[in-house]
Write a structure and sequence with these properties.
The chain is α/β, with parallel strands linked by helices. The protein has helices spanning 4-11, 15-23, 30-43, 49-55, 74-90, 104-111, 130-135, 159-172, 185-189, 193-209, 222-235, 250-259, 276-280, 293-308; strands spanning 61-65, 94-98, 117-120, 140-143, 153-157, 177-181, 212-216, 241-244, 269-274, 287-290, 316-319, 323-324. The chain is built from 14 helices and 12 strands. Helix 5 (74-90) links the parallel strand 1 (61-65) and strand 2.
Length: 338
């Protein structure tokens, strides 16, 4: 016996769209309505009154999967969460927060009727969660970009463009040797999408600009930051421009550079990729490419609610990076790194 999910799949729409065609509670375009009606007729779907009511019911809850994995910046994660929660309230929806690092909670949520839709964070290039949400009846939006985003709805900062922008800024200031102090090793081992995309953009721009580039993974601890800085200055001593993409390590990187005699803003330029509030809280005002975490969270909710209403196809939205120049990326005569 055909189900409403079978009809939705055959018509290429969400189950909520089928429900609205049946109930008439929402306006549905004529072409979409015709596809649904053809699928109903072809499959012989015959909803009774109770099933029709069930199909159109809502929980007014959005699930947010934000796994608190090793190497992630919890304060930054919470900025994304704040954006999702505040925007969900504008739609009179609550948020169910899932923080475990496995698929069991995701499977439990998608297989039942606990939530209307999902937003999923910390996307890996080949993320094992993606097939589950792609097959789920609930509409889903990813904050992040998997290797193959076809058929999925995704939103994020354009990290490739951010990497290119950071290098261009340093090249324009006169640097010929630049470096990235990047994400923790655990993040890179998971092939987390944002880290790989930023490195790809950075390396592509460095190659096209004809400058040398060095990449150092960095634990988000004082000792990890010190080790990354020491390794960088030992293996690439001509480096005069550094991009830091690691919010937890940023203050410790600045402190270690100072201990090594590198005056940030004079003989060493530093550009941070981070939320603006993180950049402004450092010991020296940081030139930064903003990670608009709260705004991205809000856009994710807008996208998932549009999909929940039926008509929105899958799409990818990448927010253009914006660089704000401050004291940290000024550049003068190179100093000796003692």
């Amino acid at each position: 016996m055909a189900t409403i999910d079978d009809v939705a799949k055959a018509a290429g729409v969400s189950t909520s769209t089928v429900s609205y065609v049946l109930s008439g509670k929402r306006p549905i375009s004529a072409p979409t309505r015709a596809r649904v009606e053809r699928a109903i007729e072809k499959l012989g779907y015959r909803p009774h009154a109770g099933a029709r009511a069930l199909a159109s019911s809502r929980t007014n809850v959005i699930a947010l999967m934000a796994p608190l994995r090793v190497g992630v910046s919890v304060p930054v994660i919470m900025q994304f969460v704040a954006g999702v929660v505040t925007r969900a309230r504008d739609f009179d929806h609550d948020v169910l927060l899932l923080t475990q690092d496995d698929v069991s909670g995701l499977d439990r949520v998608t297989s039942g009727s606990m939530v209307d839709a999902l937003v999923m964070m910390d996307i890996e290039a080949d993320d094992p969660r993606v097939p589950l949400v792609a097959a789920a009846k609930q509409p889903t939006v990813l904050i992040g970009l998997p290797q193959d985003p076809e058929g999925l709805s995704c939103v994020d900062l354009d990290f490739e463009a951010a990497g290119r922008l950071a290098v261009r800024h340093l090249v324009k200031a006169g640097h010929t040797d630049v470096a990235l102090i990047g994400s923790p090793p655990e993040v890179l081992r998971r092939h987390t999408s944002y880290a790989e995309r930023l490195m790809r953009g950075l390396r592509d721009q460095a190659k096209s600009s004809g400058v040398r580039v060095k990449v150092e993974a960095c634990d988000s601890t004082p000792s990890g930051a010190s080790e990354a800085v020491d390794t960088l200055l030992a293996t690439a001593p001509e480096t005069t421009g550094i991009i830091v993409h690691n919010e937890g390590a940023l203050p410790h990187v600045l402190a270690r550079l100072a201990e090594r005699g590198a005056v940030v803003g004079t003989d060493m330029s530093v550009v941070a990729v981070c939320p603006t509030d993180v950049a402004l809280s450092q010991r020296i005002p940081m030139t930064s490419i903003d990670l608009p975490a709260e705004d991205i969270g809000k856009v994710a909710v807008d996208m998932v609610m549009t999909r929940l209403e039926g008509e929105q196809p899958s799409e990818t939205r990448l927010l253009a990076p914006v660089l704000t120049e401050r004291e940290s990326s000024a550049y003068g005569p190179a100093a000796v790194h003692g």
